[in-house]
């Protein structure tokens, strides 16, 4: 019987290939950029206000995710859940900071409702709401970045 080796989580790899990006927040929410470090843990960078930008030197093998700074809800980067930088571009003046767009995904009606309730009701009061137990459980299951990174690890490992 073959031994199963644990698979490495989604993480940054060592790279000598810098790349230059300008994260552009096109959402109405404050966006928090999270770099996935060499051990697969998220490291946050400065929040980007709606309409704001963040210029960054990163590396080709460094994945990024974005979340709503207030709620932890997922935001998209260039229409995807995770951003993998591409090769650097240069012109006669030096590096070109490639615009990378952060947007709000199209949430389901259920997710929109859960977000609204989470804003209005304290988490300890979810069980007091006169809603089905399944919705109470969904409310308790608020966004969790570490769990979502693990899910992304499985998704990208199998693609």
Short description:
This protein is an alpha+beta fold and 159 residues long.
Describe the structure.
With 159 residues, this protein is an alpha+beta fold. It has three helices and nine strands; from the N terminus they run E-E-E-E-E-E-E-E-E-H-H-H. The strands form two sheets. A seven-stranded mixed sheet has the order 3-2-5-6-9-1-4, with helices on one face. Strand 2 and strand 3 form a beta hairpin. It starts with 17 loop residues before the first strand and ends with a helix. The model has no long low-confidence stretch (mean pLDDT 91).
Give the helices and strands, then pairings:
Elements: E1 18-25, E2 31-36, E3 42-44, E4 53-59, E5 64-68, E6 74-77, E7 89-91, E8 94-96, E9 98-103, H1 109-120, H2 133-140, H3 145-157
What key phrases describe this protein's structure?
159 residues, alpha+beta, seven-stranded mixed sheet, two-stranded antiparallel ribbon, 3 helices
Cα-based radius of gyration, to the nearest Å: 18 Å
- Beta-strand fraction estimate: 25-35%
Q: Please summarize the sheet with the most strands.
A: 7 strands, mixed
Structural class: alpha+beta
Q: What is the strand arrangement across the widest sheet?
A: 3-2-5-6-9-1-4
Distance between the termini: 26 Å
Number of strands: 9
Poorly predicted parts: none
H/E element sequence:
EEEEEEEEEHHH
Number of helices: 3
**Residues in helices, as a percent range:** 10-25%
**How would you describe the shape?**
elongated
- Provide the residue-averaged pLDDT: 91
